[in-house]
Amino acid sequence: MNGQRRREKGVAGAALGGLAVVALWLVAPASALLTAESVRTTRAYETTPAAAGEYVAWAQAPYAERGRYVVFVKQGTAPRVRVNPVGVAFVGGFDLPSHRLVYQQIYRGQSNLKFFDLNTRNITNPPIGVNTGQWECCASLSGNRLLFNRESLSTPTRRVMLRELTGGETQLAAVRRDKYFVSADQLNGDFAVWTKCTERCNVFRRDLATMITRVMPKPETKPAKDQFGSSVASDGTVYFVRSGPGCGTGVRIVRFGTGDGPYGRVVARLRAGRDVLSTYLAEKPGGSVEVFYDRIICRTKQTDIFKITDPAP
Question: Which of 293, 291, 288, 292 is nearest to 303 (CA)?
Fold first, then answer.
C-alpha cells in the first residue's frame, strides 16, 4: 500500500473490498463529519491514490485481472496518462515543486522506485543507493526527502527509511516481517508518518526538525482499536483510520491536530462492511485539505477511490 503494504490485511484488519457509495453525512461544524466524494468508482480495481494541485494519480487493475495494476496520472480535465511502461505499479506521492511523481514498479521479480516527470513524462531512477537488491516500495516525496519501505529478501526485516536525496539514509522503524508489519505512509515538509503493527496497529509521526517521534493516541477500549493508513499536513496535523478488529468494523477517519482533543476528532464514518487501506493528504489554497482514500467493500474484494474535504482543519 505501495501495492504490498495496501494489500496486506494486517495493517488495517481489512481485506480488499469494492464498489458502492459511502454514507457519510455533513453535520454542524462542531461534529465535523464530512461528506465523501467519489473520485474513481468504476468496475476496475482502483487503489493507492495521491493528489497535488490539479493532479491526481492512482493504480488501476481490470476487473478480470486484479493483479495487473497500472499507474495513471490525470491533470484537471485532461485525459489520463499511463505512468509505468512495464510491470505492475503502485502510486507513491507527488512533489509539485520538482514536477515529480514517485511510484513503485514491480518487474521481473524486483520492486524499485521510479520518478515520473509530470512535464516531460520522462522516467528516471532515484539517487544511487535508494534501489537495491531488496524490495523498495511505498514511497512519498517532499522536497529533498524521500520516505519509503525497504524489505530484506534474505532476512525477515521490514524497514521505514528516510533518504536525503543528496545525502544519507535514516531508519525510522523496523519489524520482523514474519510476525509484524510496518509501512511508510506520507512525507510532507518536516513531518513523516508511518504505520506499525505488532499486537495492534498504531500510527507514528516524526517531526524531522526536532527528531521527536509521537504515537497517535487511541481511546482505551475492549477490544482494542487499530490505527493505520495515515497522512499528514505540513503543519503536522495527521489524518488516519481507526477501526475495530476485522474488516469493516467501526471504521472512522480521524484528524489529530491542535484542538482536536486527546484522541483526535472523528471527521468521517464508514458504514459496516466498508474499510480503508490508505489515505493521502493534499493541501489546497486557503487552508483546506483533501484527504483521498481507497475504500473497500469487504465482501466483494474491490476498491474505489473517494475523498473528503476538510475546510478548516
Answer: 293
